[in-house]
Amino acid sequence: MVYTISTESQVEIPGFSLNSIMKDSALYITISMDSLFQKHLHNIIKHYVGLTKAKYLFLDFSAEASYFIFKNTYGVRVSTLDWIHNACQLADFPIENVTFINGNSNLEESYEQWYQNIGSKVDVPKLAQAKFLQMWDSIVNNSHVDYYEKIDRECKFVKPFVYTFYNGGDRQHRLDLLIKLAKTDILRRGVVTYLQDPKSNNPDLEGIKFPITLPTGKDDNHYNINSHNKYVNPEFLYSHNWAYLDVVGETVIGTQPIGHRYSFSEAPEWWQTTFYTEKIWRPIYYGRPFMLLGSPGQLAELKSHGYETFDNLWSEKYDTIEHLGSRINAIIHELEVLCDLPQLELNRIMSDSEVVEKLEHNRQVFNLQSDRFKGFSWNHRHSFHRELETNFLVHHIDSKKIKEDNVEDDFEYDCFLETEYSQKLTALFPKFNNTVMCPDPPQFL
Questions:
Q1: pLDDT recorded at residue 387
Q2: Is 166 exposed, middle or buried (0-12, 13-18, 19+ CB in 10 A)?
């Protein structure tokens, strides 16, 4: 059983009644892909548990949702859960008092599969909780320029392009879609960016110069993750008015066979990931129709939480297609249909009152989800934090706090450190060679 936070300001933790309010010390660590955590998570846990006397540990990794975290010193990819179990053993902290928080909306179900396939076989206790929380909706709500009122949702003028397809980091699935756009000659009908050179030798990309930017060439700031708190090029904002819809290439596009260069989407077949980043929240926040190259069923999940999608404008059967290549082909087909329409006809269709109502509805639901109004929350981090503050004496730690405390120089590190966990994991998978620690982070997939 996975233990979850209730909706009534009570915390369901093993050994406690739902009717009791605890004030035990709890350590809440917001972790990231920063090499500080990859190399020193065990040291961070041990150091701050010692300072706070924390009985419970909350590891918030909601910024990410990938199954793998790094390669160990033998070049073997290590899962995020292996990393956390190993770190807690090195820190001598009981894993049954740990809550793991992640941006994967399928985390609870996938954790059960992980425990059945890995955890139970290495004889480790279950986590106290595996908890999905949203993070990127708050980033968009609090840090992005609010351009909603400047978007021409009613299509008062005929737009020069059909779609946008904005890409910062190179991902194979985004490149696959770009190749299809170039091959079918509808690339010129879109406002497209691809800010990281994929260094591809595909002949269909011949003649395309990377990076692909907006006309001024100054839009590289929407690739840098730090740009969420910095100046955003007005051209990037205004360019949303140049086209009728956004094609969104999410970070994770569903579990893919290991070794197929889909990086964050590679995982065992029993692990499923659906991840919502700023890439999908941005069109909802700005009031834009969208097609979504994400995980299969991601549109359906959005609809289950109150959002409207656009099956009145094009077929969304692509959302049900498991095979990635077929899903991309289905999206390309719908774009081709739109691109074949006369401009005035496309403008008429996109200006329909039902479309405008959906855009306004989505914005309202997003505002509610982002806690601008009370009464609605889809696994919102701030709501979860308020729950914890009610029930625990919470000590919050993040990379900024750790660096301010200047404790990293005191941390010991040895990538060959062994634990009982790593030894048991090696008994299942000998290639681990008794360590799951990374040699010199960041060393990603």
A1: 86
A2: buried
